[in-house]
Specification:
By secondary structure, this protein is of the alpha+beta class. It contains eight helices and 19 strands. The strands form four sheets. Strands 4-3-7-1-2-6-5 form a seven-stranded antiparallel β-sheet, with no helix packed on it.
């Protein structure tokens, strides 16, 4: 069946009734972490909230002012996940998040237009597409697209937008002969009922379940941002349409202003200025590494030249790396000395190295990692890894000193 959102993509409010309400759980992404939310799956008599499908994300909106967190399709039904129950049979007022909906309509119709023109101009077939949060990607069945072809394609699609070409929806029976003539990547396995065709007059007819504009002029404009190598001899074409073009221009200008302020140059010189900075940074990093290596050698020589040196050497330095620590360990030697080194900010995570007699390191290494609330691994008298609690270094030093004293008393 076709939902109301598919029959009239521009409808923003709708009254319907609850068919069923069942307890359910939904996994949501909360700042990069997956969390389970308990709630209810609502099936309605009809809906203006599009369930995800055909490369298009689901709509957002409300049922009687209750936020709908997810809409999915199950067979012929759209399932709405909410956190409050609704009684079966009760009438509900639906409202769609129009800004999100119209954004998706612009991107999806834009994809149809680009796909059709890319095919007619260059024979590039679309194998898949993704409607992303900020930009969308069309996968073309070609190993490469030349810059001139991208430019010609962009001009062609925007020309069609200016021509205000109508876009209509046709509903056909599965066995209608017309279905065989339309562009399609196949139907879902659980599809039932008639076939929905999106027809861009004189340009394209494509089997699709998504929401679309009624005229290409509603796309406003399409900007092809570029292409990149895809998988298996395919090319990904990246684009934005409609309101996203305006937002992209706004973001680009904000970045341009920020770079102009930081680099003290005009926009036309930004690339050259950043290139010079990168080269300068590489030189400075190389010099810094050389200085750290020299410093590591001096630190080791200073320790070895001390007639009163003990059997334990501990050092922490904010700037340094694994190479810095290993140079110190190599220069001092680990046969008779237990070496505990750390680098990094004391209030953040850092790196540690425990080096010395193999038996001692094998025993103490895991305990050091545990005290520093980190992880490590080692072999042949070296145990190193990441430390999450650098502030606990004194506890590690006490542990090592006690172990050395115990070992010394046993030898006596």
């Amino acid at each position: 069946m076709a939902f109301q959102c598919q029959r009239d993509c521009y409808m923003r409010e709708f009254t319907t009734s609850v068919v069923s309400c069942r307890t359910a759980e939904l996994k949501i992404d909360n700042s990069g972490k997956k969390e389970k939310v308990k709630g209810f799956n609502i099936i309605l008599k009809d809906t203006i909230l599009f369930p995800e499908g055909g490369g298009q994300p689901d709509d957002q909106g409300v049922l009687n002012d209750i936020p709908v967190l997810r809409v999915t399709r199950q067979g012929a039904d759209a399932v709405h996940f909410v956190t409050s129950p609704l009684e079966e049979g009760v009438e509900v007022q639906m409202k769609v998040d129009w800004e999100r909906r119209f954004n998706h309509m612009q991107q999806h119709s834009g994809q149809h237009l680009i796909t059709a023109i890319a095919d007619s101009m260059f024979g590039f077939k679309t194998t898949s597409w993704e409607l992303g949060r900020q930009r969308s990607v069309i996968e073309l069945d070609t190993p490469s697209v030349e810059p001139g072809q991208v430019e010609a394609l962009e001009k062609a699609v925007n020309k069609k937008i200016r021509e205000q070409v109508p876009v209509s929806v046709k509903v056909l029976a599965v066995d209608d002969p017309t279905v065989e003539k339309v562009r399609s990547r196949g139907l879902p396995e659980d599809h039932t009922g008639p076939i929905r065709i999106i027809d861009i007059e004189g340009i394209d007819a494509n089997m699709c379940c998504g929401t679309h504009v009624s005229n290409l002029s509603h796309l406003q404009a399409i900007k092809i941002l570029g292409t990149e190598k895809g998988k298996k001899n395919k090319t990904n074409l990246i684009f934005v349409a409609g309101s996203r073009v305006l937002k992209y221009a706004e973001r680009s200008y904000s970045v341009e202003r920020a770079l102009t302020s930081l680099l003290k140059t005009g926009p036309e010189d930004h690339v050259e200025a950043v290139d010079k900075l990168q080269k300068s940074v590489k030189v400075l990093q190389k010099n810094n590494l050389n200085l750290l290596r020299d410093l590591a050698v001096l630190i080791a020589e200073n320790f070895k030249s001390n007639p009163n040196r003990g059997k334990l050497f501990c050092l922490h330095r904010k700037d340094g790396d694994n190479e810095f620590m290993n140079i110190i360990a190599n220069e001092i030697g680990t046969e008779g000395t237990l070496i505990f080194l750390t680098v990094g900010d004391e209030k953040e995570a850092g790196l540690f190295l425990l080096a010395g007699p193999i038996e001692m390191v094998d025993t103490l290494g895991p305990r050091v990692a545990e005290l520093l609330e980190g992880k490590g691994a080692g072999k042949r008298g070296r145990y190193q890894g990441k430390a999450n609690k650098m502030g606990r270094r004194p506890e590690v030093e006490v542990l090592l000193q006690e172990n050395i004293q115990h070992r010394s008393s046993e030898e006596e």
